[in-house]
Amino acid sequence: MLRRPAGPSPSSRWEAPPDAGAHTADLVIATTGEDEDNLVISLLAKRQFAVPRVAARVNDAETAWLLDRRWGVDTAVPAAAPLISLIEEATGATDTVALLRLSKAGVDVIETAITSRSRAAGHTLAEIALPAGSVIREGEPTVPDPEMRLRPGDELLVVSHAATEQEIHAGFQ
User: What are phi and psi of 28, to 5 degrees?
Assistant: First the structure.
């Protein structure tokens, strides 16, 4: 929580109550319903309180360009996407879900589940054009090699600079 001291001066500095933890925070997540507020929170967290990691919710696609490293935002999270992804994953509504966008690295993390109906089931990774990723088999993450044969029940976490959720779905499902 931040507060501005009383007084007419526009140069009044924002302050954090000592018990708010702003001076010792490792991460600040700005999640208001207004991008302008999230922008101010992010900038203050980064510049005023030297918080090393700042994430901000993006409510309006037209202002998303503002929420970047220049304004103190390390990770911009679209308001609807994570919730929709979590709902889709939890309900099994889809087999391919964009889980995370790492703006600093410029990559997306996309999960796809291999089922008995998947085109990729039974094929080796060498037979599939695949961006960098990991295979989770029986709950254990593994570093895949080209000869690893995909089977129903496998989950792939794909890390890519360019591949979209739709392209990953088309390549595996």
Answer: -125, 135
**Higher-confidence residue: 93 or 20?**
20
* Sheet of strand 96-102, all strands in order from the earlier edge strand to the far edge: 96-102, 107-113, 155-160, 133-137, 140-142
Amino acid occupying residue 110 = I
Amino acid identity, residue 140? E
Tell me the two tokens of residue 134.
């990991």
Report residue 76: phi and psi, to 5°.
Answer: -100, 130
Q: Which helix (H) or strand (E) holds 87?
A: helix 80-91
- Compute the distance between CA of residue 78 and CA of residue 75 in angstroms, rounded to an integer: 10
Residue 139: pLDDT band with limits 50, 70, 90: confident
- Integer distance in angstroms from the first to the last C-alpha of the chain? 46
Q: What is the pLDDT of residue 159?
A: 76
Could you tell me which of 95, 99, 146 has the C-alpha nearest to residue 124?
A: 146
Share of residues in the chain with pLDDT > 70 (%): 69
Q: Are 15 and 5 in contact (CB under 8 A)?
A: yes
Which residue, 63, 3, 62, 16, is CA-closest to 39? Answer: 63
